[in-house]
Amino acid sequence: MLEIHGLRKSFDGNEILKGVDLAVDKGDVLAVLGPSGGGKTTLLRCMNYLERPDAGQMTFLGKTVDMATMSRRDIAAYRRHTGFVFQSYNLFSNKTALQNVTEGLIVARKMPKHEAEERAMAALERVGLADKRDAYPAHLSGGQQQRVAIARAVAGQPDIIYFDEPTSALDPELIGGVLDAIQQLAEDGMTMIVVTHEIHFARHVSTKVLFMEEGKALVTAPTAAFFEEQKLERVQTFLRSLDRKDE
Amino acid sequence: MSERVINILVSSFPRILGQGLLVTIPLTVISFSLALIIAVACAMVQIANVRGLRQVVRFYIWVVRGTPLLVQLYLVYFGLPDLGLVLPAFPCAVAVFALNEGAYCAETVRAAIEAVPKGQMEAGYCVGMSYGQIMRRIVLPQAFRTAFPPLSNSLISMVKDTSLAANITVTEMFMATQRAAGRTYEHMALYIEVALIYLLFCTVITWLQRWGEKRLNAMNGGDVIRA
Questions:
Q1: CB atoms near residue B184 (< 10 Å)
Q2: CATH number for position A211
């Protein structure tokens, strides 16, 4: 459903992505793992054009485009097929939880208000926050904000949702609720790419793993194979270091 | 206080306050409204980095902030006629106050827009909104909350600065007082009287500011800065 070839991105001559390839099929949950500074977040941001790639080809729903020269109109159209969940939630702080979800539907997609609200309420219910519909972000916990952000991404009925370290900014006791919401989406068959440090989540929810280091996709493998059969020394040491942190 | 002074104060009060209500306040309200439009436009040009226009805006702000308001008033009212452009005093004052305050407020508005976290813009893009939609519906409302107190400051300054318009023959509150003082020689009493009226006007604005901040807080979910 989505394929990327030769994705490159530099900042001030510093090459962060050195030609990354990846592919996801419908229903895949791709976990992007790897050490900090490896380019995981930049990869995700390039995939939604929050950063403009220097080079690369994207094939999405059968259409191939050059990522470096894709027009703004095409980018806007593509984004209506995607959802994005940020590490720092980025809820609109002047809008209530419900308005955060309906805003894109009403303003960008020109959906009638009552229809947008119906859909938004369904999405909020899904993440267990229907009762917080009129709360402003400032009055929600980090975990609740992130679940509203997930509802916002889901409400657009995207073909794929990108998650950029969705639990990294959360207190430990709030992480579970957010991961549960993402797992629920996975069970419903949502296609997702999740940049994460939650190794248990990657092991149990993802269908594929992409291991990134120094701007390259070092390994791409089905999840079971990645965790059970992966012999690459670099991956082994990375997994061991995470295990130590967990225990 | 002698009976004479009291009589002068009482008889001049309606005339001074009248000029305040008929001239000072309209002059302030019209000029400040225009200044806000100029400010938002200039701030947007700088934020969106519109080439060419951005240099024009920087130049305008540089010149206006670097020269005295009184000199600007004289230039427009007494200077422009030399070039064949004669304007009545009131429109002259409006133009100068609007352009002057606009330059200061442009910086206030720009800073307030820049204080809105970049993630708000990105989140807007990710739900499919356009730059203009995000600016209008997400960024500017948040920036306005931040800019509101310093803009109230500017408004209070402007109420008092309109007294400079007396220099270019606008018969606002201060000129009405000057005339009364010239006739009666009761300078101390009359200037205290007009000072108190300015103080009254500014007090009302301060109340409005407090009320406005409360409303804006409610519309922005309580806090300006999110956790």
A1: 17
A2: 3.40.50.300
Residue A182: domain span: 2-246
Residue pLDDT, tens place only, B71-103 = 999 999 999 999 999 999 999 999 999 999 999
Report the distance separating Cα A113 and Cα B136, nearest Å.
Answer: 18
Set of chain A residues whose Cβ sits within 8 Å of the Cβ of B117: 90
Q: Does B219 touch chain A (CB under 8 A)?
A: yes
Q: How many CB atoms within 10 Å of residue A149?
A: 29
Beta-bridge partner residues of A24:
A2
Of A80, A138, A142, the CB nearest to B223: A138
pLDDT tens-digit series, residues A89-142: 999 999 999 999 999 999 999 999 999 999 999 999 999 999 999 999 999 999
- Tell me the domain boundaries of chain B: 3-219
Q: pLDDT digits over A137-196, tens only?
A: 999 999 999 999 999 999 999 999 999 999 988 888 888 889 999 999 999 999 999 999
CA–CA distance, A168 with B29 (Å, rounded to integer):
49
Pairing between strand A192-195 and A82-85?
unpaired
Contact B190, B184 (CB under 8 A): yes
CATH architecture of B3-219: Orthogonal Bundle (1.10)
Closest CA to A163 of A57, A51, A48, A74: A48
The interface predicted TM-score (ipTM) is 0.92
Asked if B107 and B168 count as a contact pair (C-beta separation under 8 A), the reply is no
Nearest to A124 by CA among A95, A141, A147, A145: A147
Contact of B149 with chain A, judged by CB distance below 8 Å, is answered with: no
Q: Do B221 and A90 touch (CB under 8 A)?
A: no
Minimum CA–CA partner of B145 in chain A: A94
What is the CA A110 to chain-centroid distance, rounded? 25
